[in-house]
Design a protein that fits this description.
heterodimer, A: alpha/beta, 2 domains, 9 helices, B: ABC transporter involved in vitamin B12 uptake, BtuC, 15 helices
């Protein structure tokens, strides 16, 4: 059987995204090709999460452009960092996962007739069978991340953005979720994931974007994650010089 | 004193008691869900701030149109929305967070309101604006309250999903193309509308009590959003019923009696609540053992 054809790609040209004039992403250019599986690595504060938010359209680009082809931006499946979700909110696992059907249901529409089954299937695929009625507040860190992956599964998107999908997870959970990412990759979806564990990057991700204020490298993982590049990236946060002259568009000062 | 005399006779015998009870029912149905959403959005003090912010609008309307509920409702709505929108704009365009900018605007608004009130001397009617008289609710006022409740429930039904997602996972709503601020403004409008509805019945200062006390109490009982809505509305209506009876039999002011009853419900919930109340926390049930109980036999 022919897999559905996913053709989602992202072309980034000279992108700068800043908070209060302090750039988090600085003059970045490159392409996430259709069907590629890319890890975004780099020290804290290098602009990894900012890049994902700019792609979803949550943050506006100060300069440069992001061209997304093959998918409407609102159909992108995005996994936020767990800290941005209120896990004390009184909502059941079923309801949280069913949000993945947003594209079909929208703001007012009912959940499609097959929706309940799809939710149950997604939960089963991520090892959460029979837990659907429980409130999300009762879940462990790993179980909650599985819930968020089940939601991604239902979103059935050609482009999946993951912000630190494995942070704070135990080995069995992380490897289950990595297996799911591998399945999505095989199906031809385009995946961009922010990661910290370079071993995981080497295991699973063919492409890597190394972001840092010292050095930005983009390409095949084995050519990017060399010790020279990593050292150049510094893995240390250098503060922006506030006294520096303001960089203007077109290189003027 | 028979049970009938104590619990039902006041409402059977007096039209003003019946109207007050129906007003409580309408207020409870609207304020319950609104209060719950304020609690879930961690904006519990927002209602209090807004109730102060609407004072100058109501006062100006009172000076122009006299003790006319629709006029004062409109004035209050305008003042409340101005403060809420200004606070929202300032928090998005400057360094101030929303709570700080809101505090700034509502205190200014409150001072303006008090200035207008005191400039016109000691008008007894104006005390009604501040403290309300639910026993003087007439049919027109009742219709206004009922209309606001109907609008509130209909609008909530329409924006329910994005509103819930925005407080549970705002990043998700943004990513699927929903505009959080739009729903936030619609929700704030509903908050102000419901405070205005509580105006005549409970006064500007106490209307917020029927919104927040039942909602906070409900959080200690119910485990999902629908349960919270129902519990809060039920506690609010129960407080209205018991408060009216208490005010009738003990000859106390009706508004404070209702809110105090809601306060007692809140305190009891803190102790007895089955979802995180004190008794449950300090006298816990024995915990399960591995393997889970259903496999031990």
């Amino acid at each position: 059987m022919e897999m559905p054809l996913f053709r989602a790609a992202i072309k980034i040209s000279d992108l700068t995204v800043a908070y209060n004039r302090v750039p988090a992403v600085h003059h970045l250019s490159g392409t996430f090709a259709a069907g590629s599986l890319t890890a975004v690595v780099g020290p804290n504060g290098a602009g990894k999460s900012t890049l994902l938010k700019a792609i979803t359209g949550t943050l506006k680009a100060d300069e440069g452009t992001i061209e997304i082809s093959g998918i409407a931006p609102r159909h992108i499946a995005y996994l936020p960092q767990r800290a941005q979700i209120d896990q004390t909110f009184p909502i059941s696992i079923n309801d949280a996962v069913a949000l993945g059907l947003w594209r079909q249901a929208g703001i007012l529409g009912g959940v499609p007739a097959t929706g309940q089954e799809s939710v149950a299937e997604a939960l089963a695929a991520l090892g959460l069978e029979g837990l659907g009625e429980r409130p999300i507040g009762s879940l462990s860190v790993g179980q909650f991340q599985r819930v968020l992956f089940a939601r991604l599964l239902l979103q059935d998107s050609a482009l999946i953005l993951l912000d630190e999908p494995f942070a704070g997870l135990d080995m069995p959970t992380a490897s289950d979720l990595m297996r799911q990412i591998a399945v999505w990759h095989k199906e031809g979806r385009t995946i961009v994931a922010v990661l910290h564990d370079l071993t995981q990057v080497n295991q699973l991700f063919p492409q890597t974007l190394l972001l840092s204020r010292g050095k930005t490298m983009w390409g095949a993982t084995e050519t990017v994650l060399t010790s020279t590049n990593l050292a150049a990236a510094g893995y240390a946060v250098v503060p922006w010089e506030t006294a520096a002259p303001v960089a203007m568009a077109g290189g003027q000062r | 004193m028979t049970v009938y005399h104590a619990l039902f006779e006041p409402f059977v015998n007096y039209g003003f008691m019946r109207r007050a009870l129906v007003a409580c029912l309408a207020l409870a149905l609207g304020c319950g869900p609104i209060g719950v959403l304020l609690v879930l959005r961690r904006m519990s003090l927002m209602g209090d701030a807004m109730s102060h912010a609407i004072l100058p609008g109501a006062a100006i309307a009172f000076l122009i149109a006299g003790l006319s509920l629709p006029a004062m409702a409109f004035g209050g709505l305008a003042a409340g929305l101005c403060v809420a929108l200004l606070a929202g704009i300032v928090s998005r365009t400057t360094h101030l967070k929303e709570d700080a900018s809101l505090a700034g605007f509502y205190l200014t608004s409150l001072a303006l309101g008090v200035l207008i009130v005191s400039a016109r001397g000691s008008n007894v009617d104006l005390l009604h604006v501040l403290f309300g008289t639910i026993l003087s609710v007439d049919t027109a006022a009742l219709m206004l309250v009922a209309a606001i409740t109907s609008v509130t429930l209909l609008v909530l039904a329409v924006i329910y999903r994005p509103l819930i997602v925005e407080c549970f996972d705002p990043g998700f709503l943004k990513a699927v193309g929903g505009s959080g601020p739009v729903y936030h403004v619609i929700f704030l409008t509903l908050v102000v509308l419901n405070l205005v509805a509580g105006f005549q019945a409970l006064g500007t200062l106490m209307a917020v009590g029927l919104m927040m006390l039942p909602a906070a109490a409900a959080r200690l009982w119910a485990r999902d959003v629908w349960g919270l809505f129902w519990t809060a509305s039920l506690i609010a209506f129960g407080s209205g019923y018991v408060g009216l009876l208490a005010s009738y039999h003990l000859n106390t002011a009706s508004g404070p009696s209702i809110i105090l009853t809601a306060g007692i419900a809140y305190l009891s919930s803190i102790v007895l609540g089955r979802n995180g109340g004190l008794l449950q926390r300090y006298f816990p049930q024995p915990h399960y053992h591995h393997p889970p109980p259903e496999h031990t036999q």
